[in-house]
Sequence to fold (153 residues):
Amino acid sequence: MTTPPVLLALSVQEPWSTAILDLGKDVENRDWHRSPGLLAQARRLVGRRLMLHAGKTFDDSGVPFIRTLTGQRVLKTDCTLGAVLGVVTLKAVTVDGRPTSRWAACDAVHLHLADPIRLTDPIRCRGALGFFCPDDTVQERVRRQLAAQGVTL
Fold:
């Protein structure tokens, strides 16, 4: 029997993680220009599925921005903090400084995300900066939920 691949996770503050999973946000912006290790790791992960972890912080400034782009208002009471909410595929990493999506900030590292799948039940876990590897229990719970939703990794 083969060992399932380890899924790395990326923490994103709410309401941005909800925008990724539910509202078409296809780029996550990072200030990694001076972090060659994180940038190299991101490039190695292109094509892989990542867990999307909602950090414990809610970014109030995101609410009007998201509403302007989508017409949707995401409130803190609608969000789960400190949990894996779903999975996405990292499609590309760009650093050219030009926005490539309406969600892309100027002069940021752009993590291009696709194929978002929201878990039916968020899985509480501790986040971390950069990419991180949740423990085996979280990994297994994510795999089980995805399998129940008909998703194979």
